[in-house]
Amino acid sequence: RQRNGNFNFEAYHTLEEISQEMDTLAAQYPGLVSKVNIGQSFEKRPMNVLKFSTGGDKPAIWLDAGIHAREWVTQATALWTANKIASDYGNDPSITSILDTMDIFLLPVTNPDGYVFSQTKNRMWRKTRSKVSGSFCVGVDPNRNWDAGFGGPGASNNPCSDSYHGPHANSEVEVKSIVDFIKSHGKIKAFITLHSYSQLLMFPYGYTCTKSDNFDELNEVAQKAAQSLASLHGTKYKVGPICSVIYQASGSTVDWTYSQGIKYSFTFELRDTGRYGFLLPASQIIPTAQETWLALRTIMEHTLNHPY
Amino acid sequence: QETFVGDQVLEITPRNEEQIKHLVELEAEEHLQLDFWKLPTIPGETAHVRVPFVSIQAVKVFLESQGIAYSTMIEDVQVLLDKENEEMLLNRR
User: Fold this and answer.
1) Under an 8 A CB cutoff, do A120 and B1 touch?
2) Is A269 within 8 Å of A197 (Cβ atoms)?
């Protein structure tokens, strides 16, 4: 087992090692960090969230990674971020004030079945591993499976496609588990989901190219966050609504969370500064996590200072 | 474990809507087994596609015949995967 405190963030890790590190973190910071199970994947792997809380029933910020299994740098960044949040509480005034007022929920591996499959069978695997009745193809694109413009343009109805939206919204138990948690918690004020790659910071909408009611504020926050990110290693991000920055994509996560009233809903597409795509060399994990942290903190501070 | 020896990732820059349409049609050619890492969306924006070794010749001939600009972003995908594997094993040791 990894001994306390010397987890090697410079390398990619298996699902078991990530799970062990989550346990280690909870053990190292018992008054702040706990592990909450919000359900299980199609192949019955636990979906465990790290909860950062100073007690009470507070409004919260949600952060997840790895919904597209093969984008390993997002899971690695989430784990580094978990350590950063825990170690900064009580030391960094900004994180201390955020956690004195809000909780943070962090799900490092949103698609555990796909993650294991990408490490053991097919490194290029992106979807879930659910069985689709009537098709020999496997898996659904979990970022097209949310109940927001579900089945619209930008998703495929072909089970063999990498952007297959699934038989119906929330058909994927991994998606349904998050939906149920968000609905039952009821006080999530910001929802941030990490993807890779292309260096993009996006906000609703994806399923339509009409402007959201909070376009101006979201754009302003995202611009500020992208500038914070670029200040560390010069990584340039493009900012804007999903539909115009990349393409019309129906059924995406942040469109659903925004439709639930979670105003501060953002999707990150983390770096590839070296043209490796999502096969980012492990040596770039820490620089990626460090720069992303500055953007995350900017968004969390804005959420703290603009209660709604 | 599936391997990707000789697979390449091409960076394609469609100049106009018509070239984007050609790329979308190319993606639909299931026998080519193309894996778009970054879809073609806006003229002038780059698209990234992993092309299995067996389809590389056909795809490059198609792109050149259509005058679609492209470059090779990753020469051999398996080389990167081997390096990744090596680092994971090293870390575990």
Assistant:
1) yes
2) yes
